[in-house]
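WARN retry 2 of 3 for item q-0093 after timeout on previous attempt; input resubmitted unchanged.
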Amino acid sequence: MLDVKQISAKYGDIQILHRISLKIERGEMVSVLGANGAGKTTLLLTLSGVLRPTEGEIYFLNRRIDCLEPHLIVQKGVVRIPEGRKTFQEMTVLENLELGSYIRTAKIHRKENLAKIFALFPRLEERKNQLAGTLSGGEQQMLAIGRGLMTEVLHFLI
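OK item q-0093 returned
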C-alpha cells in the first residue's frame, strides 16, 4: 500500500532523514517511534508532500507520489492528521469537519460522512455548533481525526 524507498530529506544544509525505507501492506498498522529530533515529523511531512525528498521514491497504491503537490497526494489517499489540537479554533466543530471534505468526491458524500464521523465520535455531534477552541484537548484531537476522515479518501467503514 505504501512503499518508501531510500528517501532522504533535509532542511537547508541539515540532513534529517538518511535513506529511510519502509513498506506498509494493506491492513497493517505501523508506528514510528523515536526521541525528539529523530525525524518522525520530517518523515510524515515528506510522505505528505510538504517536504520534498532529496533522494529516493515514495509509492502509494503502486503510484509514485513524491513528485506531487500535497493537495494531489491527499486526493490519492494519503492524509496527515495533526496532533496537538491543530483545529481552526474560531470555527465550529461542524465547520472544521466540513473543511475536511473539500475534495470534489468528498463533497458529494459530505452528509453521509458526517453521519459516520458522528457515529464514531458522538461527542462531536453533541458539540457540532460549538467553537473548536472551546473543546477539551481530547475533543480537539477527535475533531482533527474526524476532519481527516472527512476527506473520504480513506473509505472508512463503521
